[in-house]
Amino acid sequence: MNxxxxxxxxxxxxxxRDSIFKHTLPSxxxxxxxxxxxxxxxxxxxxxxxxxxxxxITGLGALSDPGNGxxxxxxxxGGEVVGGAAVLTDGGYHxxxxxKEHGIRDLGALPPSKENWSTASAINSSGxxxxxxxxxxxxxxxxxxxxxxxxxxxLGGNNAEAFAINDLGExxxxxxxxxxxxxVAFLWTPKKGFEKLGTLPGGNASEGNAINxxxxxxxxxxxxxxxxxxxxxxxxxxxxxxPYLNATDNFASASAINRQGLIVGTSGTFPTNLPFTFTTGVxxxxxxxxxxxxxxxxxxxxxxxxAINDCGEVVGTVGYGVDIPSAAFxxxxxxxxxxxxxxxxxxxxxxxxxxxxxxxxxxxxxxGINPDxxxxxxxxxxxxxxxxxx
Length: 390
Description:
The protein is mainly beta. The protein has helices at residues 7-10, 16-24, 40-47; strands spanning 55-59, 70-75, 81-86, 93-99, 103-108, 116-123, 129-135, 143-148, 151-156, 160-165, 171-175, 184-189, 193-198, 206-211, 217-222, 228-234, 238-241, 251-257, 263-269, 278-285, 289-293, 302-308, 314-319, 327-332, 336-339, 351-358, 364-369, 375-382. It has one domain: TolB, C-terminal domain (Neuraminidase, 6 Propeller).
C-alpha cells in the first residue's frame, strides 16, 4: 500500500496538521478524554524521568462554546500562537491568532467567512501567518492564504494548502489533497509566486512541510520503488531523498528543519495488512547521519516529531492508537527524551497533550484536554527563562 494515496492513514502518525485538528473537532474530541497514564507501570515509567526544565501551562481559549475546542499549531519567537478552533456547533472551523496581550482572536476565512473553514499552520517573526481556507465540508478545493495585519490574502493556486512560512515570507505546502496521487509540493515567494517542486524520481505525489530561513525545504514524496521517502529540497540540488532509519523501513516523512539544517521527522514501516504505520522519530544531520528519537522502551504506534528550534530542541507527539490518548515529548541530543506531562509541576489537570511547535525561547504550543474535559490549545512557557537561540 502506498501511504501517499491514503490521507486518513497518515493521520495516525499524529502529525501537527491532523492530530491537533483531530483534538479540536467536536466529532472527535471524545477520543482523547482519557487519563494521562493508562497503567500503573506506565505511570512509574513516566515518573522516572528527571525534568531539566519545568513549564507553566496556559490555555489558549476558544472562539465559541469552550466545549467545541481549539488547538495551537505554530508559534514565533514573540510568543504569538496560531492554530484553529471551532466556531459553530455544525462543524465550522476558523484560524486564530493568540497573543499574551489580547488572547485568542478569530482570523476568519475566505468570503463568505461565516460559511467557510480555515486554519493557520505557521507564523513568522514578522507576524505573517500562513494557512489555508475552504468550505466547511472541506470537499471543495482549498486555497493557500496569508494573514497580514489581520487581513486574509488568497495566494491562489489550484487546490493549495500552505503548511509553513519562513522569515522571508516564503511559503511551502502542497497542490492537491495531501498524500493523494497527483499532489505536488510547492514553494511560493512574494516575487515569483508559485513554483512546483516535483517529486522524487518515479514518484507521483509529494508535499512540502517546512522551510527554514535559508530556503531549504523538507517534506515527503513517493518514488519509483513505491515507498514514501522524506526529502530535502534546495535551489542548488533540487529534491533529494533522506535515508531511512532502518533498512527494512518503507515510509518516512520530514516535518521540520531549523536554521542549522537539522531535520526531524519519522521513519518506519507501513504494513500492507494494517490501517496504520509503525514509525519512530528521527533527526537527520546531513545527508547520511540519522539519529533515532525515541524513549528507552518505545511502545507507541507512531512517534512524530513535529518541530525543532535553533537550539536543537525537538517536540512532538506519541500516538498509541485511536482509542488511547496521545502524549507529548521534548527531546534533545544532550538531555535525551522527556515527557512534557512530567515537566508541568503545577499542572491543573491537563491530559492527552500533543505538541506541534517550539520557538527559540523554548515556548511550546499544541493541543490537549483541559481540566474541564474539553479540547483546547495550550502554551507552555519555561519557568526559568532560556537564552534565545541565534
